[in-house]
Amino acid sequence: MSHPRRLGNRKNVKKGFQFTLMVVGASGLGRTTFINTLCDAEVVPKRECDEPEMAHIEEGIKIKPYTVELDEDGVKISLTVVDTPGFGDMIDNEYCFQEILGYLEQQYDDILSEESRIKRNRRFRDNRVHALLYFIAPTGHSLREIDIELMKRLSPRINIIPVIGKSDSLTPGELADFKKRVMEDIAHHKIPIYNFPYDPEEDDDETVEENSELRSLLPFALIGCEEEVTVNGRKVRGRQYPWGVVEVDNPQHCDFVKLRYALLSSHFQDLKEITHDYLYENYRTEKLSRSTDSASDNESGEEDEHSRLKEEQFKKEEGKLKEMEDRVQRELKEKQQELWTKEQQLMSLEAAQVQVQ
Amino acid sequence: MSVDAESTQPILQSYVGFDSITSQIEKKLLKRGFQFNVMVVGQSGLGKSTLINTIFASHLIDSKGRTQPDEPTRQTVEIHSFTETIVERGVKLRLNIVDTPGYGDQVNNENCWEPIIKYIKDQHSSFLRKELTAMRDRFIQDTRIHCCLFFISPTGHSLKPIDIVVLKKLTEVVNVVPVIAKSDSLTIEERIAFKHRIKEEMAFHNIKLYPYESDEDDEQDAALNESIQDLIPFAVVGSEKTIVVDGKPVRGRQNRWGVINVENENHCEFIHLRNFLTRTHLQDLIETTSLIHYESFRSKQLLALKENGQQQQQQQH
């Protein structure tokens, strides 16, 4: 099942890799069940049966990371899944977006300040989120306002992969129409989602085929299930209805298997690279130019002060580093000179000896 | 000689024939026709329009969902009223369906219920005004909402905070019948647990749902009402498509893993809802709207008017 060339060199394969995935969607769309289905274990505990008094209380969004060690065909994966319970559940959900954005940017900030240190912490943990699965409700219409808002606001900071939660509530015809409408909506609103990019000129046929197939499945139709049922004598992960059984691992029933493979085998590298080389870089540039801009604009918010100080410190440290480098170079040159002189002396001594003999 | 009518009824010596009053009434009513006003409330995409069309077995209303990318998202709740007359065995039913697109669809849904409550009260208000007019119509056209179908999203968890707020406000002014929409995404176990939670939450918040208990109920009525109350909220599935199952055409949904038969009681509770609304409680819904909700509105209004009038009189003195 694994593609050796995809996974990088052999060292990666042995060492394993780390991947962070965030999952966002209103409650009741199967977000938590999906996480447990993906990891094939109860990573996120089943929601406690709250007291009926709790139903009207608006708790607000929470950000909850869980880390599991997975083994995919011999490859070790340290997977961190960040759940976001409470998203979209309140009467006024304006606040949700900022919470998530704040979390994503916090991880970037941590990397930024770590990079500017002279003595870096070797054990520093990179908590940047590499992909965000956004759960769309299976309405059959088009996107809701909250869907558009979330994807628009978060796409500059993270790879967004839209998925349809509880997709077994749609017939095959309804699902195809719905997928088409959602993608048209996304295109119309110019929302940059992660769409398995490929270059028909540069990439080989296999890559082009694989990526265009995955792209055509967007948004992925998902079903989550942690229980097993028996179908025709074999045990499968599925949901038992009076009219039949929906199988999670059956590609005819939903896109779970394809998405899982993309996330944990074929495309995690691409997602990580885009996060680091593009999304993080953009954030870094924006943030640093904001702080220099604010210095010249004479804006003195506390945050700008802070980033200005950081920038100054950064420059100072850079200066010190340069000094050290120069000194080392000088010393090196001196030593080389000494060595050369000594060599010359040795050579003349040798020559003198030969003459004597 | 005065007779206590209840304890000793006189025995009729021969057939009088006043028992035909029921058919006299029926004849009149058949000529006049009946009016039924139903409102649907719920987020877009929960199958509201489809359910109405399924209940009345005809394509009455279109979905108001957002389907084109250049369609903007609704920023407010709109009230769309649609009237159609349907006929069954000579009985005319003038059906008025009130849809509420935009409800619960925004990022910020604060006060999205207000236009709905206002609309319901406005119908009471307009009826009262017509009643109080000196020269009033013989038959005042009844636009008061007789039934509000409240659509609950099939999350499988519990009611949302917005559901609780809106149910509280709605049940004060109209007969509310909650349904679990698109219930084909819940397994039977999940459905039972979900209903149980919802009932607990509604009991905790003292939300009074139709049918209400009445002193007039006899044993049979009470038993029927109890069984309805047990079922509520109805877990429904709607469909306008016909699929052939065992040689018979039924309304259903066809998936890769099976066929959902809307009319099969083992699949969903559509039949119970349909019978409840049209075959057993249709008349009662109309009557309780008038006798309970309208009366309550009317007495509040008239008391307020009286107080206003008294205050003005006092000021004049």
TrEMBL record, chain A:
Pfam family, one: Septin
Every Septin-type G domain range: 15-290
One GO CC term, this protein: cell cortex
Keywords, ordered alphabetically: GTP-binding, Nucleotide-binding
Residue spans of biased composition, Basic and acidic residues class: 305-328
Superkingdom of source: Eukaryota
GO molecular function, one term: GTP binding
Disordered: region residues: 287-328
Similarity comment: Belongs to the TRAFAC class TrmE-Era-EngA-EngB-Septin-like GTPase superfamily. Septin GTPase family.
The name this protein goes by in its record: Septin-type G domain-containing protein
From TrEMBL, chain B:
GO (cellular component) term, any one: cleavage apparatus septin structure
Coiled coil: none
UniProt KW GTP-binding keyword: yes
Gene3D superfamilies referenced in this protein's UniProt entry, alphabetically: P-loop containing nucleotide triphosphate hydrolases (3.40.50.300)
PROSITE patterns: G_SEPTIN
Domain of life according to the entry: Eukaryota
Name this protein carries in UniProt: Cell division control protein
Any one GO molecular function term: GTP binding
Biological process annotations from GO: cell division; septin ring assembly; sporulation
CDD domains reported in the protein's UniProt record: CDC_Septin (cd01850)
Family stated for the protein in its record: Belongs to the TRAFAC class TrmE-Era-EngA-EngB-Septin-like GTPase superfamily. Septin GTPase family.
Start and end residues of each Septin-type G domain: 32-304
Keywords: Cell cycle, Cell division, GTP-binding, Nucleotide-binding
SUPFAM superfamilies named among the record's database cross-references: P-loop containing nucleoside triphosphate hydrolases
InterPro entries xref list: G_SEPTIN_dom, P-loop_NTPase, Septin
Stored Pfam families: Septin
Keyword Translocase among UniProt keywords: no
